[in-house]
């Protein structure tokens, strides 16, 4: 019984299991299975990006301020389909700490590992979110 309690406690402290995502999952529009997935949580401005296909591409998310004339805030890349996703949080500082009470646009794409060029045909639509937490 003690072993089970310890295992549950450890699981609850991992980032993915502790978050009830406000936004997502959002997927790239390439053929199924989708090659990349993105989630966003307003409390703490947490962005999660996952490369979900083993190939010569990686996942890249774009975070933009606004909904029409987009100002890029930052990008987040997950380089490999290794079962681990990449995260950015407000506590990482600088541009990751998104100002509150503003609109943002998020999109998830795939990019080539050798050149870093984004494969724009794979990009999701821009998902509009209002960050009020």
Could you walk me through the main structural features you see in this protein, from its secondary elements to its overall organization?
With 133 residues, this protein is mainly beta. The protein has a single domain (24-131), classed as Immunoglobulins (Immunoglobulin-like). It is 11% helix and 41% strand. The chain has two helices and nine strands. Strands 4, 5, 7, 8 and 9 form a five-stranded antiparallel β-sheet that branches. The model is unreliable at 1-14 (pLDDT under 50).
Structure characteristics:
133 residues; mainly beta; Immunoglobulin-like; five-stranded antiparallel beta sheet; four-stranded antiparallel beta sheet; 9 strands; 11% helix; globular
Instruction: Summarize the amount of helix as a percent range.
Output: 10-25%
Strand content: 35-45%
CATH class: Mainly Beta
Give the full name of the CATH homologous superfamily. Immunoglobulins
Task: Kindly summarize this structure in a few lines.
The chain has 133 residues and is mainly beta.
Detail the topology: elements first, then pairings:
Elements: H1 2-12, H2 15-18, E1 23-27, E2 36-41, E3 46-51, E4 57-65, E5 71-78, E6 86-88, E7 102-112, E8 118-119, E9 127-131
